[in-house]
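Thread title: Can someone regenerate the structure for this chain?

I was given the following input by a collaborator and told the matching structure tokens would be attached. They weren't. Posting the sequence so someone can regenerate them.
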Amino acid sequence: QLDDLSRNGPNYIRPNQTYVYSHKYRQKRVEQEYNRMLDVSVPYLVRVHYMSNTSTIIKTFSQELATCLYERYMVPISYLHIDRARQELKLVKSIQHLLNKSKYTLRVTDKSGIFHIGRAIDYEHKGEAYRQKTRAYVELESDPLWTVFDKVIHLLNDLRSKKHILAWQHEKMMPKRDKVALAYLYFIPKPHKEGTPLRPIVSSMKTPTTGISKFLDQLLRPLFDKHVRSTTIIDNVDLIHRLEAYV
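Best answer:
Regenerated them for you:
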């Protein structure tokens, strides 16, 4: 099991994962993936390339996407590939069982892109030490998710009733009850440093305010790029490109 983790690493994707599930489940998965991709692609084509929702290009894209997903999920594969999918699923479940039984945790490292196995209690102690040292985070005594959710709903409805925003803007920013989640703090290890310190990360992709944040970003991003982008370095890759252009 350790050899498998070391050999494949975090970037390994088990082939034919869905073939260990029922035909009904795979069909549902195709529909979910199809709708998810269209929900992202079609608005982009309409907004950026000024296409109509009923254009021939979008219809063709939708048909080819459906065909591609069907071929990936539903077309029969050989017994050899099915057996491999089952064996790898069995291996994954075995690793999960051992980690839970031994109270160890598996994490992807900060920079080296490999797996790190550590004791769960060590993660808890280091996380608590970080919170005590920085005083940047506190542990909540209760879950405020639905309080925040209701406030966002009330705010958007109020803005819409006063005609400060349009119907499509209201819909775009409105959070979905079945898709929201509270932001949370987690840590990933940095084994390349002495003592394996932890890097804090806040996950807030599904908060009730995410729709508002994304909409404001779409409005302000062009203005930002126009006036500030030339003097802003986004990441290491961007820095290298800037240096290459400068040299």
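The first strand starts at residue 104 and ends at 108.
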